[in-house]
Design goal:
With 379 residues, the protein is α+β, with helices and mostly antiparallel strands.
C-alpha cells in the first residue's frame, strides 16, 4: 500500500448508558413477560457468561437515551480521544440493527444529535457486521483522499425490543403466557450502548494509532435463510411479501413478526460457515495467525466462543487463547457496537505495543456474514 493512501484509527470512543446492571436485575428493567421470571433466561445466562450489562432504560422500562443520542456521545468521545472537534469532521458513517425511526437513515439522526455542520453521511443497517460496513466506508473515503477526518459509529438500543408489550397478544406466547425460545433467549443476550472510531490519513502526533491494513466483509446470504431477524413471523421470514411492510404492523405483531427472533438450529450451521470463511482467509494468506499479536473476536455468548475454539483447535488457523481479548462478561453483547466498545477497552488496558497487530473478527448471524479488520499499532 502506497504511503499516500493509508488510513489510521486515531480515536476510539464508547458510550455505555447507566450503571452496570447485574444479571439478577435484568427483568426489573426489561419487564416480566406474563408477570413472572423467565425460565429460559436463567439458562441463557449460563450459556452466555454475561455478569453485568448496560441498558438505556430506567428500572421499570422508561427510556433515558435514544440510539442516535448514544452514537453521538460515542463520536464525541472518539473526537476527544483524537484531540479533534466537531468542526474537523467531514464524513459520518453510522451503523445499527435498527435505528430510532424507520425513516430517515440512522446516520441522519446521529448527525442531528451531534449538531454538527454540513457533513457527508452514510447509513448501514444490518446486525453486528454493520459496524465494519461503516468502518470500511470511512476507511475508503480517507484512502481516496475525499475526507481528512471520517467517523464510523455503531449503536444499539436492543432492550426496547424486549418489553412485554412486544410479545403480548401474539402467537409467541402460549396459553400459559410462556414465551417461545426463539424470542426469549435474545432478551438475555443483547445489551445497549454505542462505539465509534475516527479515521485519518496520518497517525496522531502523540501516542498510538492503528493503521488499517484491510477490512474484508463476506456475506453468505445466498446459502442461508435469515437466522436472526425481525419484521416477519417465524414461518414468513423467507417470504418478503409476508413481512410487516406488506401485511401491516398489527397483523405482523399478532403473528409474532414484530419481535427480534433467533433460529438456534440454523445458528449451529452458520457458526461452522463463519469458521470456514476464516480458514479460507488463512489458506489464501490474507490472514497469517502466527503474525497476529492480539485477537478481538465478537461473539454473543461464552458457549459460542467455546464452539469456535473447538472448531479451530488443531487447525492452522488457531490463534492461542492467551492472545484473545473480550469484555463480554462486563458489558454484554452490544450488537454492532460491540467491536468498538471492545476496542476502546482493549486500548485502555495498556496491552498494545508499537508494531503489534490486532485482528478484529465480527461474525453476524443475521443472514450469515463475517467481517475481518487487521490493524497495526504505530507510534
Amino acid at each position: 500500500m502506497d504511503s499516500m493512501d493509508q488510513a489510521y484509527i486515531t480515536g476510539v470512543g464508547a458510550f455505555l448508558p447507566g450503571a452496570p446492571v447485574p444479571s439478577a436485575r435484568m427483568e426489573d428493567f426489561l419487564g416480566r413477560v406474563g408477570g413472572r421470571d423467565s425460565l429460559m433466561g436463567r439458562r441463557a445466562l449460563r450459556w452466555n457468561g454475561v455478569e453485568t450489562r448496560h441498558y438505556a432504560l430506567d428500572p421499570g422500562g422508561s427510556a433515558n437515551h435514544s440510539n442516535a443520542g448514544m452514537c453521538a456521545e460515542a463520536v464525541r468521545a472518539a473526537l476527544d480521544d483524537a484531540g479533534l472537534g466537531l468542526g474537523d469532521l467531514s464524513f459520518l458513517a453510522a451503523a445499527t440493527t435498527q435505528g430510532d425511526l424507520l425513516v430517515p437513515g440512522h446516520a441522519a439522526m446521529v448527525h442531528g444529535e451531534l449538531g454538527a455542520g454540513p457533513l457527508e453521511i452514510a447509513s448501514f443497517q444490518s446486525v453486528c457486521g454493520s459496524s465494519l460496513m461503516a468502518a470500511k466506508a470511512a476507511y475508503l473515503s480517507v484512502r481516496a483522499g475525499e475526507h481528512q477526518v471520517a467517523a464510523a459509529c455503531a449503536g444499539e438500543f436492543s432492550s426496547r425490543w424486549f418489553q412485554p408489550s412486544f410479545y403480548e397478544g401474539s402467537t409467541l406466547l402460549d396459553g400459559k403466557h410462556r414465551l417461545r425460545a426463539e424470542a426469549d433467549y435474545l432478551r438475555f443476550t443483547l445489551s445497549d450502548g454505542a462505539g465509534a472510531i475516527l479515521v485519518e490519513p496520518r497517525p496522531r502526533s502523540q501516542g498510538l494509532s492503528l493503521r488499517i491494513r484491510f477490512i474484508d466483509i463476506v456475506s453468505l446470504a445466498g446459502q442461508f435463510d435469515p437466522c436472526m431477524w425481525a419484521g416477519a413471523s417465524i414461518e414468513d421470514r423467507t417470504n418478503p411479501l409476508g413481512s410487516w411492510s406488506h401485511v401491516g404492523a398489527r397483523e405482523a405483531h399478532q403473528a409474532g413478526g414484530m419481535a427480534l427472533l433467533q433460529d438456534f438450529d440454523l445458528l449451529k450451521r452458520v457458526i461452522r460457515a463463519w469458521v470456514g470463511v476464516y480458514l479460507k482467509k488463512v489458506d489464501e494468506g490474507r490472514i497469517q495467525p502466527a503474525e497476529v499479536d492480539h485477537l478481538l473476536c465478537h461473539y454473543s455468548a461464552r458457549s459460542l466462543r467455546e464452539e469456535i475454539v473447538a472448531l479451530l483447535d488443531k487447525t492452522a488457523g488457531m490463534i492461542p487463547e492467551e492472545k484473545w481479548f473480550s469484555n463480554l462478561a462486563t458489558v454484554g453483547n452490544v450488537g454492532s457496537a460491540s467491536i468498538w466498545v471492545m476496542l476502546e477497552a482493549f486500548l485502555r488496558s495498556g496491552r498494545l505495543k508499537p508494531g503489534e497487530s490486532v485482528l478484529c473478527v465480527v461474525p453476524e448471524s443475521g443472514r450469515a456474514m463475517v467481517g475481518f479488520m487487521l490493524l497495526e499499532a504505530v507510534e
